[in-house]
Known about the structure:
The chain is of the alpha+beta class. The protein has nine helices and 21 strands. The strands form six sheets. Strands 11, 14, 17, 18, 19, 20 and 21 form a seven-stranded mixed β-sheet that branches. Helix 7 (282-294) crosses helix 8 (340-355) and helix 7 packs across helix 9 (434-449).
Amino acid sequence: MARVDVLMPQMGESIAEGTLSKWLKKVGDSVKRDEPLFEISTDKVDAEIPAPAAGTLAEIKVQEGQTVPVQTLVAVLETDASAAASKPAPAPAPAAAAPKPEPSKAEPPPPKPTPQPRAQAPSPQPPAPAPAPAMKTADGDGGGVQTAEQRLRTKSTPLVRKIAAEHSVDITRIPGSGYAGRVTKQDILGYIERAPAAPTPGPRPQAPGPGAAIDHPTVEPWPGDRVEPWSKIRKITADHMVMSRRVSAHVASFFEVDFTRIAQLRAKAKQTYAERGVNLTFLAFIVKACAENLRKHPIVNAAVSGDSTIYRAEVNIGIAVALDWGLIVPVIKHADELALMGIARAINDLGERARTKKLSPDDIQRGTFTITNPGGFGPFAGIPIINQPQVAILGVGAIEKRPKVLTADDGAESIAIRTMGMLTMSYDHRVVDGADADRFLADVKNLLQEFPEGAV
């Protein structure tokens, strides 16, 4: 028998650690090569990790719920020698171009201490690691000296460095709990929460920024209650939603749309699309209409940065996907350059990979506008929360047949059965005025009600 190490994979260049959320096999189970072995959660995505070789799960090194650095040994497989010789041992890396791990195989990184949760009561700081040999900085001026430990900390993830910059925090002063003293997101948020507030010049009030820690009040459970800790994706979603509501000035507009023409075009083309392996939905037409009009209304396809507005050059539309374990928003890149067939295919593909945990970190990044479709569950309308740092999100209500008053060319009025639906857009009133939002929605509505047959 041969032993094959299973490592925590690198799920993207900016991701330094992952949480092992669920084992799909137990010790003693047989596994096939590329069969899902365990699930992980990172700051970017949930994913199933396949087995690197066929064999038997001999040992589990990392338990469910533990967060460990990438390339940490999480399990050991036992295989026959011939199978092991034909397959290299390292665990698969779903994201392309992942950087090579710094530790050698002869000296695997020590297991990371259990991270302190971002709770209401501050916890004591972890002890600072032993000082490492000093070396000159790489800035070229030869005037500064950093320890190797400090250099590793400054190589923390972009998210950690962004939070540090927003709060004017020197990362090298924070004891890190990640690999070799790297500062994790939990470390810096805990440090900011414990640090005394710096005085601000003048009387101007300071709004909490996107990087500020989120405080979720606790409630005492009653006898018989069931307490279920949040999964990583639920925690990230909760923090993101609370942060968005306190950062953006939310306003919403409602537009009722007559989808009768879309329903007719869809009925005619649905079989043709199905023969090409694509399910043509109402959502595909809505994404197409939004993509066509975001170029005409660039303020809706923007982001806020401090007291500036970033007008995005790309039109990348995120589609919120409701999963049993949370919510995720994969992104259709360059949606304005795709025909209806390409958009429908992208919606099908991203939705399926979200449900089977096959998304990569790149699939959920660089969105410029988001669409959520709760109408599939039946609600008439809803008011969604903006997906930061974007400035607008469109909610799609139930599309169904309803009575509608029609006016003929001669002014005669009648009541007819039409396929109707409600579109709701929440927008950030700091930069998007009501007139901007309503003009955008009016153009989306007109395109849906007069959709050209040649575009299907």
